[in-house]
Structure formats: C-alpha cells, structure tokens
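Allow me, if you will, to draw on your knowledge of protein folds for a short while. I have a record of one protein: its chain in single-letter code and its fold written as discrete structure tokens. Could you please explain, in whatever detail you think fit, how the structure tokens follow from the sequence? The record follows directly beneath this note:
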Amino acid sequence: QVQLVESGGGLVVPGGSLRLSCQTSGGTFRGATTAWFRQTPGKEREFVAAARWSRGSTHYGDSVKGRFTISKDNAWNTAYLQMNDMKPEDTAHYSCASTYRGIITSAVRSISSYDYWGQGTQVTVSS
C-alpha cells in the first residue's frame, strides 16, 4: 500500500521561500505521477504542480508558474515542492498525491486522477 507523508509546512513572510517534502513508502517513482494540490477553507482543492516522472514532464498551475518547482530524490523516495517568492494568497493546506495509472496531460490537474493522498501540511504566508 502506497503511503504519502508531507512535511515542511510553516509560517513564511511574503517574498520568502519554503520547501515541502512528500515522502513515499510502498512504491517508487517509476511509472508514477506525483502532484501537489492546495486548499483553503470554503474553496475547492486547487492544482499546484505535477510531474510525470517517466515522461520527464512537469506541469504547474497558472498562479504558481515561475515561482514553484516540483522535483524528486530517488534515493530518499521523496518528492519536493520548492516555493519561492511566496505570496499571502499561497496560504493553504498543501497535499501531495500520486498515481501509477498512465494519465494524459489534460488529466494531471484533476483530483480524480490520483489514487493516493497524504494528510497534508499547512503553509501560511504572512508578515
């Protein structure tokens, strides 16, 4: 059974940086797609970033493009979300997700594409 555990959330000032981690157990990155989503109270879960590792492709939400980067470390079986130039509107509960099903480009932003989810970590951007 694949399990995902996020860490690295916290409080950061506007313009600052934070790196989230998503440690994976029960599976590797081979053939996997990993994604990050975020959610604030009263709003729908928002797509942040995804990577289809075998294809070498990455995808980003419009609001984070150019500021956030998704990556992985095979040795630690951990995916990362590097967040730079952070803004108050980045405040949210961030969750990582993964699937081993082959998904097409248009589906990487869809919550229903992912089978495994972590519990998430809270990120707050405030001065």
Remarks:
- The radius of gyration is 14 Å.
- The chain has a mean pLDDT of 96.
- The CA atoms of residues 75 and 84 lie 24 Å apart.
- The first strand starts at residue 3 and ends at 7.
